[in-house]
Fold this sequence. Notes:
Elements: H1 3-34, E1 42-44, H2 49-54, E2 69-72, H3 76-88, E3 92-96, E4 112-116, E5 123-126, E6 131-134
Parallel strand pairs: 2-4, 3-4
Antiparallel strand pairs: 1-2, 5-6
Bound molecules: flavin-adenine dinucleotide.
Amino acid sequence: MERSLQFRIVILLLCISESLQENKFREFKSCLLERGIEPGRIVERSDSNEYIALNFHWQLKRPDIFPLAYVITKDEDSVATSVACGTEHKVRVVPRSGGHSFEKYSFGDNSSVVLDLGNMNSIDLDKSASVAAIGPGALV
Ligand SMILES: Cc1cc2nc3c(=O)[nH]c(=O)nc-3n(C[C@H](O)[C@H](O)[C@H](O)COP(=O)(O)OP(=O)(O)OC[C@H]3O[C@@H](n4cnc5c(N)ncnc54)[C@H](O)[C@@H]3O)c2cc1C
């Protein structure tokens, strides 16, 4: 096959894949909104200060990643809803707790949605039962 034709086919496939990914994300977002996730908790990829702050990369080991969006979760229900919508609409959902992974695993990749668990940082201690319930966003 001629080289320029091969090149055009690759570009076409990339465009189709990008558009499918965008559709999946739109459906995923509608699913979140329909199930009660407040719009302000969904921060889509953009050059907004909020996205830039959420997507801060302190690790320099691998190239920066730009997930499709961040969902700022507030409780178990919002996590469950996000995972369910991700599964239903085939969008990769990645949890981020402290965000200290050296390998940047908590950023997922450019086609994932990151669940930012940072607000779920409560620590409840039941001394009599010697049991502590620690939110995934609690930092040392
Ligand atoms: C300075 C420094 C020192 C370190 N020292 C050590 C050490 O001594 N020993 C050691 O073992 N590690 C060490 N680490 C590595 C780090 O502690 C681990 O990578 C740890 O997983 C980070 O926790 P985190 O909550 O920040 O995870 P994140 O970076 O938020 O996530 C790490 C991975 O776990 C997933 N994940 C996050 N939260 C959840 C959740 N609630 N449920 C399911 N999956 C989840 C993420 O998607 C990601 O794949 C060190 C890191 C740093 C920066």
